[in-house]
Amino acid sequence: MMDICIPTLFVMLLSTLATGNNTSVGTQLYRSLLLNYEKNVRPGLDYSYPTMVKCQFKFVGLNRFQEIDSKLSIQGVFIIEWFDERLMWDPYANGNISSTLVPQELLWKPDIAIANAYFGVQFLIKDGVSIRVKYNGALMWVTGDTFVIYCDADVTYYPVDSQTCSINMITWNSYPFEVTFDKVGADTTFERNFSAGNPSWDVKDITMTTTINPGIATTVLSVNIKLKRLPEYIVVNIILPVCFLCIINIFVFVLPAESGERIGFSITLLLSVAVFMTILSDSLPQSSRPQIATLCYFLFSQLMVSILMMIFTIYGLRFYWMMPDKSIPVYLKLFSRIMDRVCLGSQCCKLSKQVTSIKPTTEHIPDSGKQESNFRTVPELEEILPEPDEYLTWQKIANDFDNFCIIFFMTLIVVTNAVFCERLSSQ
Q1: pTM for this one?
Q2: CA 272 to CA 147: how far, in whole Å?
Q3: What is the pLDDT of residues 232-276, one digit of tens each?
Q4: Which CATH number fits domain 26-229: 2.70.170.10, 3.40.50.300, 2.60.120.460, 3.20.20.140?
């Protein structure tokens, strides 16, 4: 029994000594790295060259984009890397330790700030974050947060618009010849891991670019986020109802004038379109730059069409209830004849009814002693048929006016809808 226990205790003792040795090596390495380390002095052996800082952005999710307030809220993680020659060691001489974590407040780090933060300048420093230090002097600083930035929306093609918002980062206290961002190509697209979807927007692309702003003498790193709006909600709840209301509005000219409901019907639909304009104005920024949304022009055009329909309805009722003894002007007579031709010969139908109502006459022919049926000649028919002005009444003028309004407003609505769709499809 003792023969078995002694080797076991010996192995446990060796493991304990090895663990303690590695722990002491890690502690010694940590202390040696920070010994005589000055965190207020930037790294670099030759100060004629700037300290290059490489940044990557990992998109996590889009919280909300408020176009009215020009406020974009997103979640993301910045991975910032640079070299510090003062933090190098030999891993073989230090227990094969290739990297270690050091609290960020103990090391030099670039003073990066978001210049276009919505609530003022926002620094990337966040409590409780450590910096990963590798044996070759490479440092990696990973920090994430919810970033609220200012983004001016261009709603010209609302609701099929695309927006490009940028997170503009600068080195707050350093000149470009001291600290600068590593050059990032404009077409470089970073991978989006763990990205959460948004019900109103879709993130199409994320790129990063670097520029030097001579006005503030610093390098600007821009994270450009391209957003595409999901238009289904607006189409179903605003555009289609307005189109259907305008089509229904045409049926005001089909209602009988005796019903007395034409004016009320027109006013109700006019107010409905005005309500949709109010709903849309609450969801768009109150700005005329760079351009008002095309949908606003579309709703305004439909509102004007509804107003014209109401005015034409009033004139149609005025024609219908005109006193019969009042003479019809010549231009209205000409208008009625034109409408008869346009409306597939409605005048000819009336005349045909009068012609067929004339019965043939029977005359006796003495020479033959037979009776034959002879129809009247054309001149005789012309004497019997009334002149066009004899059957033209104010009620017929009103009916022709209603037919004209149906054709006119149907064409007008189709044209305005086609122009609106063509405008949006160009986006």
Answers
A1: 0.72
A2: 40
A3: 988 898 888 888 888 888 999 988 888 888 888 888 888 888 888
A4: 2.70.170.10
